[in-house]
Amino acid sequence: SSLGDCSLALAGLRGVVSQADPCYAGPFFKDVEREARDNEDTCLTADSECNEGTIFYNEKIQPVDSEYKEGSEYILSRFIKDGSYGEVYSAQDVNTGFRFAAKKIALKRFSSEEVGAWSTLRSPCITELFGVVREGPNVVLLMEEKSGSLSQLIMERGRLPEDLSLHYHGQVLTALEYLVKKKVAHLDIKADNVLLSEDGRDSFLCDFGHAEKLDNQGLSLSNSRDMKGTETHMAPEIVKGEPRGAKADVWSSCCMLLHMLNGCQPWTRYYTCRLYLKIANEPPPIGEIPCDCSPLTAEVLKAGLQKDPVKRLSASQLKEKTDRALKEVGGLTSSVQGPYTEPLYVP
Ligand SMILES: Oc1ccc(F)cc1Nc1nc(-c2ccncc2)cs1
Q1: Disulfide check for 200: which of 2, 14, 243, 336 has CB 3.0–4.6 Å away?
Q2: Bridge partner residues of 56 (DSSP)
Q3: pLDDT (tens digit, 9 = 90+) per residue, 306-316?
Q4: What pTM value is reported for the model?
Q5: Given CA atoms 58, 59, 60, 65 in this order, what sign does their dihedral have?
Q6: 103 CB less than 6 Å from ligand 1?
């Protein structure tokens, strides 16, 4: 839409739910976050009548009289899981019947980064954010629904065949290559946040609750050093509170590759204590590379699990290596559904 419509939509946004071009969602949600922090009390007792937000252009999600509220314009059908900062439900638009996923976040825990970073992304490897609606004390993020997650598949199959693991790793690295171009770091790459298509052959990155914008050097703009993401997949620079950027996602993607190959997350078979110090002081978990994997797969993991982010390969360099490793094992021949294979416990 032209700037006119969009800025009009934003200007009129107070108290209405409007269709707007996602490019402008970021700034609006900055002040929702500020307002939430400023008047903590009111947003807690916030009148449930307050219903404002932005539905990005989508004829299948229809505000009625510029309202989009749970229980009237859409319904939550079933609880799916706890996402970052909120619960995820399957939802349906009452008028169109269109199904989507919805994450309900308490206003005081809402980070405008999830919307600001995500709303500018358009990639076949990243789930689409349809919109954000504030309902009283909550913010609800609306996202395209997928049939399941990579973590569910790993649980069902114990561990995944090497070719299937490399296939998904390659797709996640394609998503990371795109994020590097858009100067966004996801900072919570793990199988829980990778969703699968119906036939399981395509994967999509989701949940930008920990995402951060990057500067021209590829380092995070947010000066916060607080640790983000999932402990077992945290890069050394994260646990050490050092400057972080896109390379942290590369480390986490290799932790996820180990999770797919072994059927269990790195570090957890050797340590039950807090992992931060182990990740900071121990060598990288390359000892957990399964002995039955191909040499090129081991190369991918060694290159992606370099503790020094400068030495660690970039998403596009690792994507090339991963594609070569997949060719070396004969390409993707395994079916997505298949026999349960016992996870590899301590050798
Ligand atoms: O950050 C979000 C913003 C909006 C959403 F609707 C969901 C998420 N986060 C996640 N959704 C899932 C998931 C969704 C659908 N099916 C299986 C898993 C896993 S993490």
Answers
A1: 336
A2: 20
A3: 999 999 999 99
A4: 0.89
A5: positive
A6: yes
131 Cβ below 6 A of ligand 1:
no
Which amino acid is residue 306, in one-letter code? Q
Report, as residue numbers or ranges, the catalytic residues.
Answer: 188
The stretches of 62-149 forming alpha helices (DSSP H) are: 112-118
Query: Which of the listed residues 142, 192, 206 should we mutate to test ligand 1's pocket, taking the one with most ligand atoms within 8 A of CB?
Result: 206
In ligand 1, the atom with minimum distance to the C-alpha of 192 is 19
Distance 83 CA to ligand 1 centre (A): 6
* 187 torsion bin: left (phi>0), alpha (psi -120 to 50), beta (else): left
- Ligand 1 neighbourhood includes 101 CB (under 6 angstroms): yes
**Cβ atoms of 184 and 214 closer than 8 Å:** yes
**Where does residue 49 rank: exposed (0-12), middle (13-18), buried (19+ CB within 10 A)?**
exposed
CA distance 4 to 118: 23
Other beta carbons within 10 angstroms of residue 50's beta carbon come to 15
Pairing of strands 17-20, 194-196: unpaired
Residue pair 138/106 in contact by the 8 Å Cβ criterion: yes
Angle at 189 between CA 187 and CA 192, to 5 degrees: 130
Residue 88 Cβ inside 6 Å of ligand 1? The answer reads yes
Shortest-distance atom of ligand 1 to CA 101 = 6
Does residue 150's CB lie within 6 angstroms of at least one atom of ligand 1? Answer: no
Alpha helices in the chain (DSSP H): 3-11, 25-38, 40-44, 112-118, 150-157, 162-181, 236-239, 246-262, 276-281, 295-304, 315-328
**pLDDT tens, residue by residue, 188-205:** 999 999 999 999 999 999
Distance 102 CA to ligand 1 centre (A): 7
CB 231 within 8 A of CB 272: no
